[in-house]
Amino acid sequence: SFESAEEEYQGQTKRKRIRRKKQKTGLQNSNNLHGEQTESGMQETLVQDNLQLQQIESPKISKNKKRKMKKKRQKEKMRAAGLVTKNTSVDFTYQPDKNNREEAARLKDIDEKADSILDFLQATQQIYFADNKSEGTDSAVNSATAQELLQYLESRTISSSDVTLLHQLKSLVLLQDIERLKDALKQFQEQSMMLPDHTKIVTSLFHYWITDILPVKNRK
């Protein structure tokens, strides 16, 4: 009948309204819950960020630790961008080579010895030529050649082995050890890498110490 059909239609409509109301309520609850979770997550993130900022700005954290934290964050950003792999090392520590340090010390030692020999030979050659000891010797042994030798020493145009031999000769003169000085002078003549004229000048100057200066000193 018409009445029973109308009642059935109103019942269906009422049930649909109830279902829609329930769905709407459930959706609102879901949205509210999601909003609360989102808000809670944001608050948690803000708290963590604030804690990190406080840690970074804290005066108790050293500059070195801040630098490391900053470097770590940069590496994480680069890794996230696919620019750096986990095992890539970006730290390089400079360590001076031990051999380089030893070589620098050796060169400094040679330089100091050359300076002391230069002063010693300069003083000796002044006395030598003032005493006319160059008369009757080889024509290569003269004041000009002696001056050239001193210039070679001053400009370091001389081998380190010759500097070592010359320094040994000078040390024996200061020790006034004539016998050892004679042997060292022979060794110098055999091993010297100097020009022949320069070798003759050195031999003459040290021989002058052996024959004329040291014997007088020893007699006194």
Automatic annotation (TrEMBL):
Residues 1-79 are annotated as: Disordered. It comes from the Eukaryota. InterPro entries: ERICH1. Residues 13-24, 62-76 have a biased composition (Basic residues). Residues 25-57 have a biased composition (Polar residues). This is ERIC1 protein.
